[in-house]
């Protein structure tokens, strides 16, 4: 069995509490697009209703899903323009209000001090947004250039649950799946890591208490080998993965 030497972290709601802020900005833009395209929404989207449906997907992925659902189309130029606008709106919100997930900074500092693992960020979100997020909370020092985005880094943009971004990150770092562990908070992210052959720790910390049990089940069904409820449990769950008991 290969020794685990690399930890791949999702960004949104795994390292930083960004999903609520991002989806808030995103909802405003999607409602604007719906009006421009004469889409009759049952009711306007809110940050909360978008999160329920699209957590773990990037804006491009959401727009593809919405076009299929409501039967409207966009040119590539239109879509790219909206993708840029969404980035700007969300980054402005993140720069103003973003905070790290509780307890993660202590874990990152300890991992950095131990120098046992290579650390990387593997996200669906645009690279500019991911970098703005980790810089805002001072986590960028842990990852160097190893920050990968399904929306930006790949030759053809995609979104989790497509495993492409995990495969790309491993190729760039010269790592095999059995040397890596991923930490993910969403179904799409967990599927992405699992489909790339990586063992995934499912993190449910940012979910409301009443949703956690449901999310534990969803992430387990998506392939997470172990569930982490709080970053204080990281060493314990990591030991289970490394021992091969999960």
TrEMBL record:
One GO MF term: phosphatase activity
Signal sequence coordinates: none
Superkingdom of this protein's organism: Eukaryota
Family matches, as NCBIfam families: HAD-SF-IA-v3
Protein name: HAD-like domain-containing protein
